[in-house]
Every structure is written in C-alpha cells, then in structure tokens.
Write a structure and sequence with these properties.
two-stranded antiparallel sheet, 1% strand, 51% helix, globular
C-alpha cells in the first residue's frame, strides 16, 4: 500500500533531489513520507484486529478512524499538489499515481459502502446431488386470525435501517471500488509505458494491484495472472540496475511469487513435503532429523562463476617452484632471497 518500504525509499530520494530545485514540491513529498511511516504502523495493527464491534467506541474503532483520516490527508496532498507538479518526471509521476491508488485501496478496505467483506449470514444446507431441496420447513404457517399467509414482517415491527458508518464524519460513505479500480488501471498503464519491467516502482504497482484484485475484487485468477505476467516482465527485461535497485526488485518478485500462490495453499501444501520431514528412500540422521543444506545466494553463485585472479592462484599454489624442486622460492644458505621475502630484508 502507501506504506510500502520501496515507496518510502523512493519518496525520500525524490524529496532530497528536489529540495533545491523545487522546495515546495519537496516539502509535500516529505509530508507524504512521514504520513506513510505513521500509516504503516497503523495498518499493521489493523491487520491483527480481525473482529470489530462497531456499536461501541473501542480502541480498534479509533484506530480505523485514524487510518481513514491519514489516508484522506495523504490523498489530498497527492492529488492537489504532487501530481500537477510531476508531469515531466517519469519515476515520480508513476509513484504519485500509485500512491493515489493506494489511498483509495485503503478506503475500499476500511470505509467502503457496501462493505467488500462477506457478512456472516447463515446459509441453508446444500442438498446432495440427485435430491431436491426440502423447503417445507421454510413455508410460513397460516395466521389463525386471518386465515392467510403471514407477511414477511410481523405486525408492528418496522424494517431495520442500516446504520451509517461511524467514520462518515471523516469521509463520505460510498462505493470506492470503481474509483480505486480506475486509479490502479491508470497507474499500471503508466508503469508499463514509462518504466522497465524490472524497475522496483513498476513492481510495487503490480504487487499492490494484485493484492487489490484478490482482497477487494475477489478475483483470484486475475490476481495470479497479473503477478505471473509481472514476473515474466522481470526476466525479459534487459535494462541494467545497481545493487540497491536489484535488492528492491528481488523483494518485490518474492511478494509477487506469494501472490501467485494465494488461494492455492491447500493443494500446494498437500503435494509439497514439509521442511525436515524424512522423504521416502532417504536415510535419516542419528538424531532423527535429516540434515538441511542451506541454499547458495545469488551473489555466491555469481562469485563461483567468476574466474580466479592470478595472485590468488599463485598464493594458493604456494609460489613457483625453483630448480631444486622446493616450493619456497630461491634460497641461499638457508636465507630466502626471493622477491616475496619479508619487507624488512635489506638488499646487499
């Protein structure tokens, strides 16, 4: 979301670069950065609070109000001040449109009307195949006073009106799904047109777009396809990058890989053996657990493929052998006279 570490990192870099050239823009970038740092902690706490009683003024309700207020202020700064001033800057433009979509994503999660989360409505048991559902128990019994079927509501009971969200004083309670979807579509199109396939900002856009499709639109297949296509674009990219951008891109690729597996944990978990479990045909260790071999990192694999330097080969071989067959260089009367002798030796 707007609290992504990659987004915060690039926000800080852009704010520092534009400090002398455009202090007005730099000040708003710093404000959005500070708001994003605070919002990240609030969102982390909100994810842990799964159940919420909106009828009482609980601490979790106050937390939701704070999240909505921070997101509203951040959206105002991005839409009214940052986006109009970054039209000629590629990376900052894509990041600004991504931040706008992120704030709408938060509105959909915490303040959408109707709510995107499924309510706990009891459902009737599903009949088995080949048998029709028995709905005789659902038919209303006749009223002994009138002799006709009973109306849906008993006499004197007015229909219950749905209460307004408690945060309506902060933000209008409406359906933000169409707006958020349009913002994500625009940010994704800008990222595809202006940034390379392995750029961390482009990968950040794809990561949150895939999460939005899964959590808010309930489109698991579309989310997995989007994540898979983003990973393919990374492998097909030919542009170079420095070490910092490579680490950020690798982190985003790992998140996209997890997005591809969301909703498939049951099937994957049944076919994938657990770590430390003894497989068929393997000899367990004496302690009962199989030894685990750590995987080599990408940097270690690259270092193994690099050619060895001449000085390292020479040090490893112990120096060139002289005519006498020893490997300690030239010696005269037990004194080493080779160029690799001690630096304290005096030339006579």
């Amino acid at each position: 979301m707007a609290s992504s570490e990659v987004d915060q990192k690039f926000l800080g870099q852009f704010a520092k670069k534009t400090n002398l050239r455009n202090p007005y823009l730099s000040s708003f970038l710093y404000k959005v950065l500070g708001l994003s740092v605070i919002l990240s902690k609030k969102l982390l706490r909100a994810r842990r609070l799964r159940k919420l009683d909106t009828t009482r003024d609980t601490k979790s309700l106050q937390l939701y109000h704070h999240i909505i207020w921070l997101s509203r202020e951040g959206l105002i700064m991005v839409e009214q001040y940052i986006i109009p001033m970054v039209a000629d800057q590629t990376e900052m433009k894509v990041l600004s449109y991504k931040l706008r979509a992120s704030f709408y994503h938060i509105f959909v999660l915490f303040h959408n009307q109707p709510s995107i989360h499924q309510t706990a409505i009891p459902s009737f048991p599903t009949p088995s195949k080949g048998k029709s559902a028995d709905r005789s128990s659902l038919r209303s019994s006749p009223n002994p006073m009138e002799g006709g079927p009973v109306q849906p509501l008993p006499p004197g009971l007015a229909p219950v009106s749905v209460p307004k969200p408690s945060a309506a004083f902060l933000l209008p309670a409406t359906d933000y799904v169409p707006t958020a979807t349009a913002c994500f579509t625009e940010a994704s199109a800008l990222a595809d047109a202006l940034l390379s396939g392995s750029h961390p900002i482009r990968l950040s856009v794809k990561t949150e777009y895939a999460a939005y499709m899964y959590d808010c639109l309930h489109d698991a297949d579309g989310s997995r396809r989007l994540a898979q296509q983003a990973i393919k674009d990374v492998y097909n990219a030919t542009e170079g990058m420095d070490d910092d951008m490579f680490e950020d891109a690798a982190e985003q690729v790992q998140l996209l890989g997890k997005m591809m597996k969301r909703g498939m944990s049951a099937s994957v978990g049944s076919s994938t053996p657990r770590i430390g479990a003894a497989t068929e045909g393997s000899t367990p260790k004496a302690g009962g657990s199989s030894p685990s071999t750590p995987r080599a990192t990408r940097r270690e694999r690259m270092e193994e493929q690099l050619p060895e330097l001449p000085d390292s080969k020479e040090r490893r071989s112990g120096g060139k052998r002289n005519g006498n067959g020893n490997g300690n260089g030239a010696r005269k009367n037990g004194v080493d006279t080779s160029p690799r002798a001690s630096p304290y030796r005096r030339d006579r």
